[in-house]
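One such given next:
>
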Amino acid sequence: MLLLLAGSLVVLGYVYAGYPPLLALLVRVRGARAIRRDEITPSLTLVISAYNEAEVIRRKLDNAVSLAYPRDRYEIVVVSDASDDGTDDIVREYAAQGVRLARQETRRGKTAGLNHTVPAVQGEIVVFSDANAMYEPDALLKLVRNFADAGVGCVTGEARYLSRGWTTADVGERAYWNYEIKIKRLETALGSMVGGDGAIYAIRRPLWQTLPDDAINDFLNPLQIVAAGWRGVYEPEAVCWEDTAGGIATEYRRRVRIVSRSWRAVFQASGVLNPFRVGWFTWSLVSHKMLRWVSGLFLATAGIAAAQVWSVALTEAVVPTLATSLAVVVLLVVTPQGRRSATMAGYFAVINAASIVGVIKGTRGRVSGIWSTPRQHDAQPVTAGWLVPVGRLGQAAALLIVIAAGAVVLMAPRETTATLLFWSSVAVLGYVYAGYPVMVGALGRFATRAVRRAPVAPRVCLLIAANDEASVIEAKLHNSLRLDYPSDRLEIMVASDGSVDGTNEIVRRFAPRVRLLELSPRRGKVATINAAMPHVTSDVVVLSDANTFLDTGAIGALVQNFADDQVGGVSGDVALIGDRAALGRSEDLYYRYERWVQRAESQLGSMVGADGALYAIRRSLFVPPRPDTILDDLVIPMAVVRAGYRVVYEPGARAVEQGSETAREEFSRKVRVIAGATQFMRRADSTIPAAAGQVIFSLVSHKAMRWLSPLFVAGALTSSLALAPASPWYAAAAAIQLLLLALGVVGCNRTLRRVHAVAIAHYFFLVQAAAAVGFVRGLTGRQSVLWKRFDRVATHPPALGPKPPPAAPVVYTHE
């Protein structure tokens, strides 16, 4: 394993750190190959590829017509790949300024458009550009001066990235291209650089060859030019500016597409792998590109080998190894330097994963010449901070853990494997249920982020999503009308999701104070919220369930937090009431524990999610979740965090609701919660700004690891059983776990569950079983988006007082 680890690290070290200095050494020994430059102005055609670029094409054309190049020697051609967003109409407005539109009536891809357009252009030199690449005024002059050298066939300029964002992709891509620029300079000094840059590169027009429609023109065409005996050089003073890809998911897709087509291009350009034909260029191509594209394989191999080495270290020194690992995690999350390092590591992991996928697709011929810009991919709102794809990274980490675990099982002795599994499982469970709460509580004492509260009174809409709530909706509305908040600043809206039990008729009696939005057919809670939000004009939206009854001051307590400009969401304190012999004190204990953790997280920065029974957000921060979203109280607050705001806990905003009447009801509810959480982690909207490192830390520690706890419970039990015959200590550990399991099973009897120890054991294993079922349903998409309503009991706490009389008939909206 040590040899395998060392070998993999040597290859990775050569690819990313060894090749550049070796290249520099070779250039120094051989001497840099000069380029003869002169101030020439050959006829030139700027070819701009575009697909649905209405957002930027006007700015691009204004930039293009203003460039410092003689206009009588310069034409501009826009190749539109069947754009249908108004791009072509904008281009036609520039016809009088020498801009020509070349439109493909059916979408065939960028290279197909160039194949049709380039042979017919007028210029001796053809410059290729993207619609979002803005050139410096002298960029064209700097490019073409290199063609004074009769041996130069292709010139690539320098694309620089605008510092407008700090997403993972922004930071990583800028750092990556700064590194690339140094290599391009050295390769040019040696002879020819590898590839071009689609944002800014130029060729002699006779050197254009018709390419396969699915080929990547800015890589294959320069390879063909070098194979034909010409040089491909880098011109650092020909500068253009463009935005980074933005989101990490967009960067992943872009990288897969580039690598899949570039890998094929290497084998389509005859001769570039023959050093007797192209000299040192073959070495550069293999070292700079091909080995880097497959470096993910060496990275995975190194990970497996490292896992085996780590397993030995863990077995021999459990506590020091875990303590060191935990310290590293805390440093990565808490410190700015750590977050930046984590961001760069995340970008490195993403591009390596994308490269492997791209190589596989390219080898199998599964490539496409059709492209979409990052502006079309990214439908997410503008966000604050580097976006970390927690869900995607979690999936990648899980895959690496599975691979490493498989390697350990295959290669390590059985006793070592069982010992590692036991201690790892115990350590994770201890951290999730005890270590993390203690840690976050301790950190809260030293790093509290105070919330500025003030008695403000913004316009508020109390939004109640309801389905067949006739048994409680009248009491709910009486409770809502009794709230101590200015009536002219409070709107009450009931969004009825296909109710057929008389709910709508009851709501109509509360006009004009209550507004009814009828929806049919039934579509689910999130779709109901999405449909209601366009009808809301208030500054703040308070979302509450039909069976949740608010203290009179709850709204005021919630909105006082919005006096702080950094607060975007507030969660209330909902207590469980009623005769709940089914779960009783164990459920109460669990919820008190949860509230303590949520309060500590809020003091540090933000809660993870909110309590769906009572939470508030700024209306302007609402991002409609996908209609099939299961958990509104996780996805909606996380969108608030993604926009750069805090979600805080307000203990003064109190409410009550009936607790679970049966264990079956509680089980079903928790299955739905875990399924929705798993769904959230699988989707792109699980991205979180790295600046909100505490939220990432809490999401992983408080939620994700707890959702996976059934795996660790099973791991601890099976490993201790395997080790029990050879060790009294492990036998005792197995016996304790079996006893707890037995108590949990015994707790299925409602009478026996009244024993406190039995109730706690039963509730713990109910939660574990629900987490296991919910996790599977979330992965397979088998959890219904429609929420299951159990029998409601209209609860009237004494503090709420008598019911007021109903109001006049309602005026309602039908949708």
About this structure: The first helix runs from residue 2 to 30. The two ends are 65 Å apart (CA to CA). The first strand starts at residue 44 and ends at 50.
